[in-house]
Structures are given as structure tokens and as C-alpha cells.
Design goal:
binds zinc ion; binds guanosine-5'-monophosphate; globular; five-stranded antiparallel sheet; alpha+beta
């Protein structure tokens, strides 16, 4: 998938609306359209990478920026003390649907076991 038909690149460009939580130089965070928890925020690099590994391999500092931004959002949104989960889906078995690297922040309730779908 090229950048021109990437949903999250369109959100970065402002061509698709999103509820923005944080807008930094290289990183954007916005609310997930179909939240799986009371707080469900996606943190993405503004530059397109298909996966978290593509990003980390090319620019590990940028991968660190996503983690830092997620932590700052947790403090600002006041769920840092209660706790939260950070998650990168990568590839078909993970269920990754949007091929633009994104860090999920899930919070606002006890999140239960790590897996979110039933195991076979
Ligand atoms: P994935 O399954 O790829 O790890 O996660 C993609 C996430 O993007 C899903 O949680 C889905 O709800 C969210 N999503 C899909 N389309 C949109 C959209 O147009 N806007 C927003 N804000 N989130 C979206
Ligand atoms: Zn993209």
C-alpha cells in the first residue's frame, strides 16, 4: 500500500477527520474510531511505515518517540496511575488491519488477560 491510499496518512494530511489527542512534530495521536476500552488511542509516526518493525529498523529514535508520547498522554489523560496497555499489531496473525504502524493505548478498565480474542 502506498502513502496515497493509506488511511492513516490521510489522517496525518487532514484529509480524513480524527479526534486528535496529541500533535507533535513527528508523531500524531488520535482516538480509535471503534474503541475496545473506555480509552483507546492510536499513536502513529507521521511518516509512513507499514509496520512497527519497519519503523524501528529505519529509525529506532522515532519508535522511542511513540513510546514517550504514549506515556505523556497517559499522564495528561490521567490514566497513568490506574494503568494501561500498549500494543503493536504486526502482520496477518495479529489482525493488523491498517498497514501504517500504530501503537494502541488501551485504558480505563481492567484489561484482563493479554489476548483479546478467543484462542482456538
Ligand atoms: P489494527 O487492527 O490495524 O492494529 O488497528 C487498526 C485500528 O484502527 C482499529 O482499532 C480500528 O478501529 C481503527 N480505525 C480504523 N479505521 C479508522 C478511522 O477511520 N479512524 C480512526 N480514528 N480509527 C480507525
Ligand atoms: Zn501511511
Amino acid at each position: 500500500m502506498g502513502m496515497t491510499d493509506c488511511l492513516f496518512c490521510k489522517i496525518v494530511a487532514g484529509d480524513v477527520p480524527a479526534t486528535v489527542v496529541a500533535d507533535a512534530e513527528e508523531v500524531l495521536a488520535f482516538r480509535d474510531i471503534d474503541p475496545k476500552a473506555p480509552q483507546h488511542i492510536l499513536v502513529i509516526p507521521k511518516r509512513h511505515y507499514d509496520t512497527a518493525f519497519d519503523m524501528a529498523r529505519d529509525d529506532p529514535r522515532l519508535a522511542g518517540e511513540l513510546l514517550r508520547e504514549a506515556g505523556e498522554i497517559a499522564v495528561a489523560q490521567e490514566f497513568a496511575d490506574a494503568g494501561y496497555r500498549l500494543l503493536f499489531n504486526t502482520g496477518p496473525d495479529s489482525g493488523q488491519e491498517v498497514m501504517h504502524a500504530h501503537l494502541h493505548i488501551l485504558a480505563g478498565r481492567p484489561l484482563g488477560p493479554m489476548l483479546t480474542e478467543p484462542q482456538e
